[in-house]
């Protein structure tokens, strides 16, 4: 007697499958990032979370900079890349806007990981690595805004509700606002942390919404 079996895709978004994997990965990545920022910041003498940017912890010339770059940026970024790839596969049949937005968001996660590869240099602000770090930062918020808005516009195919679509696009646009304009009022250290928090929060809401919609690759 032959028993028929059905393979379940890794990124299946249906409630009765492994769709909970993506929200779990977002939480792990966010915890890894926040924990490393707090831990390495507490271990660095004179470092203040309200004064210094996160990237200082991974800058060349700072103790344990390489470890922070790997744990604080590279590992969370790669985990989020897995999430982005799963999201892209889930919305592949939801229309061109959602599909393009999903792949652009994948670049945002890779740009986040690259922040830990190209470190700032505390002794040379014009160093090539530092310039690449700033470029990756700009690429991160730009792709987050673009991909998030496209995904929100394309989400009408799975009818998530107008409030979610507007809220999702607004949060995606708040990330570049915190990166460009908020530092003038709040300082770069605080606005940068708010931008990172919004980013992880947006991802958690996005994958949860797609999971509830029952989308699958």
Architecture overview:
The protein is mainly alpha-helical and 217 residues long. It has one domain (21-210). It contains seven helices and no strands. Helix 2 packs antiparallel against helix 3. The relative contact order is 0.15. The model is unreliable at 1-18 (pLDDT under 50).
Topology:
Blueprint: H1 21-43, H2 65-90, H3 96-114, H4 128-154, H5 162-180, H6 183-186, H7 188-213
Helix pairs in contact: 1-2, 1-7, 2-3, 3-4, 4-5, 5-7
* Beta strand count: 0
Largest sheet: none
**Integer tally of domains:** 1
CA radius of gyration is: 18 Å
**Helix/strand order:** HHHHHHH
> What is the overall shape?
elongated
The residue-averaged pLDDT reads 82
Strand content: under 5%
Low-confidence stretches: 1-18
Kindly state the percentage of residues in helix.
55-70%
- Spatial gap, N to C terminus: 31 Å
Supply database-style keywords.
217 residues, mainly alpha, 7 helices, disordered N terminus
């Amino acid at each position: 007697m032959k028993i028929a079996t059905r393979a379940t895709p890794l990124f299946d978004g249906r409630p009765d499958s492994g769709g909970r994997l993506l929200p779990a990965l977002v939480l792990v990545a966010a915890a890894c990032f926040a924990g490393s920022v707090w831990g390495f910041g507490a271990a660095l003498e004179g470092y203040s979370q309200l004064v210094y940017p996160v990237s200082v912890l991974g800058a060349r010339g700072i103790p344990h900079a390489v470890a922070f770059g790997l744990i604080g940026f590279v590992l969370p970024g790669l985990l989020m890349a897995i999430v982005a790839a799963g999201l892209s596969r889930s919305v592949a049949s939801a229309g061109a806007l959602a599909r393009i937005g999903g792949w652009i968001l994948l670049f945002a996660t890779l740009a986040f990981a690259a922040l830990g590869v190209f470190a700032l240099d505390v002794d040379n602000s014009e160093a090539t690595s530092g310039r690449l770090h700033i470029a990756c930062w700009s690429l991160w918020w730009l792709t987050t805004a673009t991909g998030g808005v496209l995904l929100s516009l394309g989400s009408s195919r799975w009818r998530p509700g107008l409030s979610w679509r507007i809220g999702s696009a607004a949060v995606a646009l708040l990330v570049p606002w915190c990166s460009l304009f908020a530092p003038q009022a709040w300082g770069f250290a605080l606005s940068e942390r708010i931008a990172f928090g919004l980013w992880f929060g947006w991802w958690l809401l996005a994958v949860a919404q797609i999971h509830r919609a029952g989308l699958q690759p």
